[in-house]
Each structure stands twice: as structure tokens, then as C-alpha cells.
Amino acid sequence: MEKKNFTVSVYTENNIGLLSRIAAIFLKRHINIESITASKSEVNGVMRFIIVVNVTEEKVIKIVGQIEKQIEVIKAFYHTDEELIYQETALYKIRSADFVEDLNIQDFIKETNARIVTVTPKFFVIEKTGKRQETENLYEKLKPYGLMQFVRSGTIAVSKNEMQISEILEKFNTNTVS
Amino acid sequence: MEVKTANFEKKTIHSTTTVSGAEAVIKCLLEEGIDTIYGYPGGAIMPVYDELYKYQDKLHHVLTRHEQGATHAAQGYARVTGKVGVAIATSGPGATNLITGIADAQIDSTPLICITGQVGSHLLGSDAFQEIDIVGISTPITKWNYQITKASEIPEVFAKAFYIARSGRPGPVLIDITKDAQFASMDFSYKKCSGIRSYTPFPEVNLLAVQRAAEAMNQAKKPLIVFGQGVILGEAEALFKQVVEKSGIPAAWTILGLSALETKHPLNVGMVGMHGNYGPNMLTNECDVLIAIGMRFDDRVTGNLEQYAKQATVIHFEIDPAEINKNVKADIPVLGNVKETLQLLLEFLKPNEHTAWHQEFKDYYAKEYDKVIKHELNASEGELKMAEVIDEINTCFKGDAIIVSDVGQHQMVACRYAKFNSSRSNVTSGGLGTMGFALPAALGAKMGCPDREVVAIIGDGGYQMTIQELGTIFQTKSAVKIVLLNNGFLGMVRQWQQMFFERRYASTELVNPDFITIAKGYHIKTNQVTERSQLKDAVRDMFEANEPYFLEVKVEKEENVFPMIPTGAAVSEIRLE
């Protein structure tokens, strides 16, 4: 079975140590995490981790099973790129002198729909949100001018299908009250 | 499906009393019905020990001689009683010494609560004296863990911990409590946990899956059941027996499934796996339907997965969804508590006998008897064989004893030859293979079942890993019968060196102390067997003793355990010599 990128979405309670518990599952199986983000989710008090890994589907199924087994994990899913709307954000810090003197840079920004977020006499900060290849392209274009700093976020993604977390939690509440 | 009742339902009024966090810990244990705990004191857990002093008439604390012993004793207690075992230790080294036992409980699904003291919360992260990140260290080997920094958290966290440890697939939970939380006062009221929204102890049963399983079992010509500890943990032994008897399907066990079905049952066809019986291993690769019940296809059971039961339709009765398709692809997965699924299954099963198929197991047994068993049980000359000792124990104890084995050759021999009449009678470290497990586990087992005989079968290697627990056995006057099978070697490793490393016996021959003198030093009654002729009387004498007893038996130095599936080989490539 061939390896490809899978995005694992994990809905959890908001507790100390859960990141480490989830990360340990990958560590135990010698799997490198390509990117990871954690934030609040659409459900009040519920956290959402988005973890991208490059593995076989057989492996990702097993990982999701192990993650879901953790007490404070409400539900875990895995998706392929086709099943998701996903984005990354990158920040590029460049010298103001380069920006002002080289019109190419301004063209790059226009072409790629990047955005200038900060302007100071010494540096500009440009932000680009998109797929990996898009932020990568802009990186390649700006690199010759000497990037002062570059950083890219982990993938964030929403699935095309419903996740039904609220339903799962609602079901528990119904069961406990009845 | 078990209905999760009342988590935050109808707030009943609970009377509250103001107590210290340390006292709250004791009260939580009492609320959960705990009467015995195993542990070792130290700085960061002293407030709790101070309360133990006050509560000693209600809560029996057993001072082991090492924290690892506390975990194994708690495990032994849990394995024979089905209740949650509790171990307690201080911060730092006290906490890290628990790790082996916690890992063992995790892989063998044993309900265990470990309580550790922690430095004051203002010192967390300062590398204080005896500070260790035990929550971080224990994360991959606990079902759940939590650090308490406020006394007010104690009742809820303990209630949750006990619920998690004992429900669903059981496992170890660690609770770390900072010293200031032990000292602080709080209003105590206790309410048992009955559900956690992010945790489903029992997956929902799919009736259709049960029906499909029954259909496959009914149509099978050569079905084989392999059962594991799930039958015991699910308290489904009686149901399981009905399933076996109604279907007439031969049933083989994993090392942790041992004793769930009595040894003498005509459909009990023995052990699967690396040193299991010839028939069930060979026929795993000939059966048409393989019914796995409460087992997880450990590599020691399956051998080479590429050649494991490929011809068979695999049915997997399992509580843990993550175990389905983990190692062996299940054609018919049946999720749920076996107590529920087997009950449903029973109704759909058609009575059958499979006489011809059963004969194949008997034929293989005859071959194994001829090549292996006969020579191990009936030797009349040469050094004593380990199996002879187990057989003599069978004769005396008549299958009623709890047998606690350590890890290595003697463990395989004990499991192969010991006879059991009732469930929860085999206590051994299966998944982790923890040498040093048996002596403290036997102590815990004896305390859990004081009216039963407990025989610990231990090799001379593992014995010396936790030998200090003789002190605990002596102090508690626990009438554990300790049988040391002394061959002067780390026998299992030596066997592998002989078979796979051209007899290069690197660091496997032991220079041993005088074990009799050591046991005598702890005022434990001793006996030694060096000749075959002494064995019968010695085992009888041990059986009749009403006190701790140490029996050393000098056995053949370079005996090998057979049958054996070499690593990487198929189960059907099992060797008899």
C-alpha cells in the first residue's frame, strides 16, 4: 500500500497533557508528524487537533484507533486531501529596501494574492494563505532577495463531510439523563 | 449496551466534611471499597501516610520492600479478585520504580490505581529534590493519568480514575498529587463516576455481526476457538463454556486466557503460541473458521503473520475497537463485552460435535506426548525436569491452587502442565514478560484470596529481581508457597543461545547464593530437593504447611522447552525437538 498524506482530525477535551498523549502514539510507531495544530473547535470547550502524516492508509486507520482509545479523545477521523478544504499560512519578512527597490517583489505579491501585514522603515511582513505549493512558490520567489525570516503554520482543515461531534456529545447527555 | 447512568444526574445531597487532601485520598479509597493497598513511603507522600496511620483499622497498608513490588502485588491482588489493585509511592525514584508494574498492567489489561506524591506545586518545574515528571513518563503506559495540584480536585479525580481503571478494557491509572494539595483542606463529598462523555467502555453490539459469526460457526467443518483474558475480564467464563459445549468447537487458550476453561474439559485443547501445544498450533493453519474471543493476536501467539490462518474465516470477539485488524484481519469483527456478545451468540448456535475434527487434536496430542510430554513427566533417571515438579504440584493441590509464574522457561512449563479447576487461577506476566513479577504478585494474590492456596513458580533469575519481597511475605505472614526451579541459568535466553547463537552462553550462567539461607534469614520455612526421590514428600510437606514456605528444586541445567515456534516461523512450523 502506498504512502500518502492523511490529515487526522482529533476532537478532545481541553486537558493538560493530551498533546503529549497523542504525540506518544506516533512516537511509539516511529511515525514522523508532518504538521500539527491545536485550537478550539466549533463545539464549546472541545479542542481540535489537526495532524498531517505521510503513511499508508492501513497505518492511519490503526493510528486513529489508538488515538480514539484515549480517554479524553471524543472522536478522531482521518481524511485524504480530496475530502478536505485545507490551508496553511506563511509569513515572510523582507527588508524594506529590497521591497521598495525591486518592483518584482511587488508583482509577486499581486500575482499570488499575498497580503502585506506590516510596514516599517526596516522591514515588511507579507502573509500568504493557501495550499503548501502556493506558499512554497512565493518562498522560492522571495528567497533570492534574502528573506530575513520565514515561517509556515501547520495545515488547518475542515472536512467536506460532517463530523457530528455535537451529536456524539448530545447522545452522551441523553443517555446519562435518561 | 450498558446504559451509562447518572453522571451529573439528580444532585443528591452529599454531606460534606472538611478534611485535608491527604485524608480525602484515604476516604476516596474507602468509598471505592478498597481495603488493602501496597506501597512505600517517602517525603512527598508523607501527609497521606500520616492519614494511613489514623485509618489503619480500615485500610491495610502493606509495606513492600521496593515500589516495583507494590505494583506487582497490587496486580496479583487484582488478577485473582477482579477488583482494582492500588499501589502508592513517593515522588521521584518512588514514582519511577512503579513504571515496570504500570507497563505490565497496561499490556495485560489489569485494573490498577497508582498514587504518587509530588513536590509542592510552587516547585513544579524547578528540578526540586525528588521531582520527576511522572505524568509525562507514565503517559504512554497508562489508560489515564492526572496530576492533582488542588485538594478540591481529589474526589472527582479518584472517582474518575477508579471508573476508568475497572470499566471496559481495564488498565492502569496514575494519579500524581502535589504535597501542598495533600496538606490543603477541602470540603469532602464523594460521588462515584458512572460515565465520561469522551469515553465509551463498551462498544455498541451489532446484532448482525453476532448472527454472521454464528452462521459461520454453524457452517464450519473445522472450527477452532482461541480464547484470551477477555473471557475472564468480562466475567463470561460460564457463558463461554456453554458456547464451547453447544458448538462442540475445540477451544485453545492464550497464556492469559489460561484457567478460564478448566484444564480437564474435553474441549480444552491446550495452549497456542510459541511454546504452546502441537495440535492447536498446527491446526490453526488448517481450521476453516478461527474464532478469537477476548484475545489480541500477540506475536507470540501468531508467529509469522503472513502465514497465520490464511485459509480461515476469522471471527474476532473483542471489546477494544483498536484491536480489530491490528495484527490479523478479522472477516467478522464482533465488538462488545463478551458477556453480552456470547450470550447473543449462544442463541444462534446450532449444537454440533465435530468428532472427526476433534480427533485430529487428539492425534497431534499423541505425537506431542510421545516426543515431549512423556519424557518430561516420566523420566526415571538424570536430573529433575521442571514438568515433574509441576506435575507433583498438580497431584497435591489437585488443580485448586492459584499458580503464579514468573517469566522464562519455568513459566512456559508451568502454563503447559499446571492444571486448573477454576478461573482467575493463573497469574503471570504475559505481554510484558516481566521477570521478578511472581514473588510480589503471589503475595498480592494470597492477600486477595486468603482462603486459596497460592503457589509461586519462579526461576533462579527472576527470583533475584524481587527477592527482597521475602521480607514482605515474612512480615505479613502470607502463606505463599514459593517453588524455586533452580537450573543455574537464565534458561530461556540460554535456550535461544543454544538454538540460534551457536551455544555462545553470554552472561546466562548464574552464580547463585545459598537460597535456603536467604529464606531462613527471613524466618521462612524451607526445604530443598536435589534428588527425584525427595520430590513427592517435599511437595506434600509444602502443601500441608500453613505458613510461608520456600521450596528449592534443583532441576536439569540445560533443559529446553518444546514444542517451539522459532521467531519468524509459521505456527505450523512448530518444532517438537
UniProtKB/TrEMBL annotation, chain A:
The organism's superkingdom is given as: Bacteria
GO function terms (MF aspect): acetolactate synthase activity; acetolactate synthase regulator activity
* Domain ACT as annotated: residue spans: 7-87
Cellular component, GO annotation: cytosol
Top-level EC class = transferase
InterPro entries cross-referenced by the UniProt entry: Acetalactate_synth_ssu (IPR004789), Acetolactate_synth/TF_NikR_C (IPR027271), Acetolactate_synth_ssu_C (IPR019455), ACT-like_dom_sf (IPR045865), ACT_dom (IPR002912), AHAS_ACT (IPR039557), AHAS_small-like_ACT (IPR054480)
The pathway it acts in is: Amino-acid biosynthesis; L-valine biosynthesis; L-valine from pyruvate: step 1/4; Amino-acid biosynthesis; L-isoleucine biosynthesis; L-isoleucine from 2-oxobutanoate: step 1/4
EC number assigned by the record: 2.2.1.6
Keywords for this protein: Amino-acid biosynthesis, Branched-chain amino acid biosynthesis, Transferase
**Any Gene Ontology biological process:** isoleucine biosynthetic process
Q: Which reaction does it catalyse?
A: 2 pyruvate + H(+) = (2S)-2-acetolactate + CO2
Q: Which family does it belong to?
A: Belongs to the acetolactate synthase small subunit family.
Assembly: Dimer of large and small chains.
Q: What does this protein do?
A: Catalyzes the conversion of 2 pyruvate molecules into acetolactate in the first common step of the biosynthetic pathway of the branched-amino acids such as leucine, isoleucine, and valine.
| UniProt name for this protein | Acetolactate synthase small subunit
Q: Origin organism of this chain?
A: Gillisia limnaea (strain DSM 15749 / LMG 21470 / R-8282)
Automatic annotation (TrEMBL), chain B:
Domain Thiamine pyrophosphate enzyme TPP-binding residue range list: 406-553
Q: Which reaction does it catalyse?
A: 2 pyruvate + H(+) = (2S)-2-acetolactate + CO2
Work out whether the entry's keyword set contains S-adenosyl-L-methionine: no
Q: Which residues cross the membrane?
A: none
| Alphabetical list of CDD domains matching this protein | TPP_AHAS, TPP_PYR_POX_like
| Domain Thiamine pyrophosphate enzyme N-terminal TPP-binding positions | 20-136
List, for all copies, the residue spans of the domain called Thiamine pyrophosphate enzyme central.
210-345
Extract one GO BP annotation from the record. isoleucine biosynthetic process
Q: Which InterPro entries match?
A: Acetolactate_synth_lsu (IPR012846), AHAS_TPP (IPR039368), DHS-like_NAD/FAD-binding_dom (IPR029035), THDP-binding (IPR029061), Thiamin_PyroP_enz_cen_dom (IPR012000), Thiamin_PyroP_enz_TPP-bd_dom (IPR012001), TPP-bd_CS (IPR000399), TPP_enz (IPR045229)
**Involved pathway(s):** Amino-acid biosynthesis; L-isoleucine biosynthesis; L-isoleucine from 2-oxobutanoate: step 1/4; Amino-acid biosynthesis; L-valine biosynthesis; L-valine from pyruvate: step 1/4
Per its Swiss-Prot or TrEMBL entry, what cofactor is needed?
Answer: Mg(2+); thiamine diphosphate
Supply the EC number(s).
2.2.1.6
Transferase as UniProt keyword = yes
Single GO molecular function: magnesium ion binding
Q: Which GO terms describe its cellular component?
A: acetolactate synthase complex
Q: How is the cofactor bound?
A: Binds 1 Mg(2+) ion per subunit. Binds 1 thiamine pyrophosphate per subunit.
- Which controlled-vocabulary keywords does the entry list? Amino-acid biosynthesis, Branched-chain amino acid biosynthesis, Magnesium, Metal-binding, Thiamine pyrophosphate, Transferase
Similarity section: Belongs to the TPP enzyme family.
| Protein name in the entry | Acetolactate synthase
